[in-house]
Design brief:
The complex is a heterodimer of chains A (554) and B (122). Chain A is of the alpha+beta class and 554 residues long. Chain A has 4 domains: 184 residues, no CATH class; 98 residues, PAS domain (Beta-Lactamase), CATH 3.30.450; 71 residues; 150 residues, Heat Shock Protein 90, CATH 3.30.565.10. Chain A has 17 helices and 12 strands. In chain A, helix 2 packs antiparallel against helix 3. Chain B is 40% helix and 20% strand. In chain B, helix 2 packs parallel to helix 3. Chain B has one domain: Response regulator (Rossmann fold, 3-Layer(aba) Sandwich). With 122 residues, chain B is α/β, with parallel strands linked by helices. Classes of the chains: A alpha+beta (554), B alpha/beta (122). The interface between A and B is medium-sized, with 19 and 18 residues.
């Protein structure tokens, strides 16, 4: 079949031309084979010498040769020329295939319709009209030659057939053209889609490669878990961080990982809670062997927002944890070690002032007094630092016991009356009648808060008074107010007043000293007692700190 | 005759100041700077009227001296115990076992006035 096909194959760039030439080839080969068989039969001995055999032999041979020539022209030269010759050949053959009477007006007239119809298929559609004209001319000439009038209905019939052929062939060609256009369009689309897909795959490959490179290069350990908490992807850093073979991580479940004996039991509970509740913690600490790791987790969602897994990031926090611990230990030790020599300075100064080794003149007493005051200031700063360090380490605790507000105020006056009067400021205090005589709280810490706030108030007040008031704020709360008539705090500074290491305007640090820890410690202490502290202030008219505390400490 | 006050304090300056404060109110003062030596002294020496005990001492901690000797042996029943410490939390821990807990910085005047009140009335 394939070799037969090759026999009819035409190489042409025009698909219409190819189609026409292939049809022509089939017809030519068909007629050629028939004429060859006819020739061979005519040459058979049984027909030899019979009448008309000679003409048959010549006719068959001419037909065969004609078909061979047309075939060669069709294959190697022009399909159009071949088709024209073929159709003319047929028309001529039909013109001489019967008696002139039959050809001009009888039964053979219909043979002429074959080339007319074929012309529209083998040549261009309108060529049917050419061949209907040729056929009309031929039958008219033959009619005149035998003294007949041309067969007008037949001629009209030829043109009607030509019209129908023309229309049909034209529609066919149009349909085929449309089909080819659709095909071409489809081909174009396939090409475009293929290119887009290739580009997208390439992008994805680059993206995946880039992601892998990022994963491989970062120092943080990464494990990606699927929806069922099975590890699907890791990076090299995680191996060094957990110090276990990578095959104990990849394709294993999160549960298996947290069963590892190196994980501290407290950390195991934290991680288990993270898995069970699908939380997304940021930077919580776990202990893995000797190491402290910080763990963060984030869920991965698909386009529809469905959870498809979790990315966990482990950071080695060992050094930072050690530094934090060292810092807090360092501050504690330094604070303690500083207190002892300062205590000695303070003690010797007191001894001078008290004239333990003999009488002193006024100037010497005054000097001893100044040594004492400065030493006390230094001790205050150290106490603040120590408190802050303890708070940061979470070591500062509150001891609740019954306390009397009046005793707190007595102690306050004992400590600060002189400081206030030295600045010619009145320090007054009052306790509201509806406040219970005994309250629950940490007396030492409340004293510290009061001293801190009142010292501050005296420090920033140049004239007027500092008022301390204990009051009942509502059924469940009581409060302390410390109000002064001092210079006030700028509004822009109020939001930061309780921040660590902050003083209003840098310059005041040099005038009044201190690290800016006092108010930060006050706030933290009040919060530790489940209370709250607020501040109101107006420039040049004063500041009021209000502390609110629960009557029943939780 | 003056009452005996035993100062157990490793810092020489503080011990000196405390001693002056106590002498100022007429105590007879004995000073020991080391935990181990204090242990021997407490076990073998005369019972003091007052002990000023620092919690932070070399070799044997003040807390151990307090718990293992002073509170165990009946001869110290009448002795007034004043603890000194730089660590307020430490002071709270031993609060019940002492008559007074003084948190450093300890004022010369404060100590002198306190101990003056502790002397037996004559």
């Amino acid at each position: 079949m394939r070799s037969l096909n090759r026999f009819f194959t035409i190489s042409s760039k025009d698909p219409d031309d190819t189609r026409r030439r292939r049809i022509l080839n089939i017809l030519i080969v068909g007629i050629g084979v028939v004429s060859l068989i006819e020739l061979l039969i005519s040459l058979a001995p049984s027909f030899r010498g019979k009448q008309g055999v000679g003409i048959l032999i010549i006719g068959s041979a001419i037909t065969f040769l004609g078909m061979l020539i047309i075939y060669l022209i069709n294959i190697f030269r022009s399909g159009r020329v071949a088709a024209t010759i073929f159709l003319l050949f047929l028309t001529v053959v039909f013109a001489f295939s019967d008696t002139p009477e039959e050809v001009a007006g009888g039964r053979s007239l219909f043979a002429f319709t074959i080339p007319i119809i074929m012309a529209s298929i083998l040549l261009v559609p309108w060529s049917s009209f050419v061949f209907s004209t040729i056929s009309s001319v031929i039958i008219s000439v033959i009619a005149f030659s035998i003294n007949q009038t041309p067969n007008i209905p037949a001629i009209i019939g030829f043109f009607v057939i030509a019209l129908v052929s023309w229309l049909s062939a034209r529609s066919l060609e149009q349909a085929l053209k449309e089909l080819r256009d659709i095909n071409a369009n489809l081909d174009q689309q396939v090409i475009e889609r293929t290119q887009a897909l290739t580009a997208s795959l390439e992008r994805e490959r680059i993206e995946a490669g880039r992601n892998q490179a990022i994963l491989n290069s970062i120092a943080d350990g990464v494990i990606v878990f699927d929806k069922k908490w099975n590890a699907t992807l890791t990076n090299p850093a995680i191996k060094g961080m957990l110090e276990i073979p990578i095959d104990l991580i990849v394709n294993k479940s999160f549960r298996e990982l947290i069963e590892h004996p190196r994980l501290a039991s407290q950390s195991r509970r934290l991680l288990q809670a993270m898995m069970e509740h699908d939380t997304q913690p940021i930077g919580f600490r776990i202990n893995w062997g000797e190491k402290t790791l910080s763990v963060s987790a984030a869920q991965v969602h698909d386009i529809r927002g469905e959870n498809i897994g979790t990315v966990t990031v482990f950071r080695d926090f060992t050094r930072e944890a050690e530094v934090e611990k060292l810092k807090s230990t360092f501050v504690a030790i330094v604070s303690h070690e500083l207190r002892t020599p300062l205590n000695a300075v303070l003690g010797y100064a007191e001894m001078f002032k008290e004239a333990v080794y003999g009488p002193m003149n006024d100037k010497q007493v005054n000097m001893a007094d100044r040594i004492m005051k400065n030493t006390q200031r230094l001790l205050g700063l150290i106490n603040d630092l120590l408190d802050q360090a303890q708070m940061e380490a979470g070591k500062l605790t509150i001891h609740i016991s019954p306390l009397k507000p009046a005793e707190l105020l007595d102690a306050l006056h004992g400590l600060l009356d002189k400081t206030a009067s030295d600045k010619r400021i009145r320090l007054t205090s009052e306790i509201d009648d509806d406040l219970p005589e005994t309250l629950n709280g940490d007396a030492a810490r409340l004293q510290q808060i009061l001293v801190n706030l009142v010292t501050n108030a005296i420090k920033f007040t140049d004239h007027g008074e500092v008022r301390v008031r204990f009051l009942r704020t509502d059924d469940a709360k009581w409060g302390i107010e410390v109000e002064d008539t001092g210079r006030g705090i700028p509004e822009s500074e109020l939001p930061f007043i309780f921040d660590t290491f902050r003083q209003v305007e840098g310059a005041t640090t040099r005038v009044h000293g201190g690290f800016g820890l006092g108010l930060a410690i006050v706030k933290q202490l009040v919060n530790l007692m489940s209370g709250d502290v607020t501040v109101e202030s107006r420039i040049d008219s004063g500041t009021k700190f209000s502390i609110s505390l629960p009557l029943v400490v939780p | 005759m003056s009452e005996l006050a035993l100062i157990i304090e490793d810092d020489e300056d503080l011990a000196n100041i405390f001693a002056e404060a106590l002498r100022g109110v007429d105590f007879e003062v004995e000073h020991i700077a080391d935990g181990k030596m204090a242990e021997d002294r407490l076990r073998n020496g005369a019972v003091p009227y007052l002990i000023l005990l620092d919690m932070h001492l070399p070799h044997v901690a003040g807390g151990d001296l307090l718990t293992n000797i002073i509170k165990k042996e009946e001869r110290f029943n009448k002795t007034t115990i004043i603890l000194t410490t730089a660590d307020a939390r430490m002071g709270e821990m031993y609060h019940d076992q002492a008559d007074f807990v003084l948190v450093k910085p300890i004022s010369f005047v404060q100590l002198r006035d306190l101990t003056a009140r502790l002397l037996p009335r004559r």
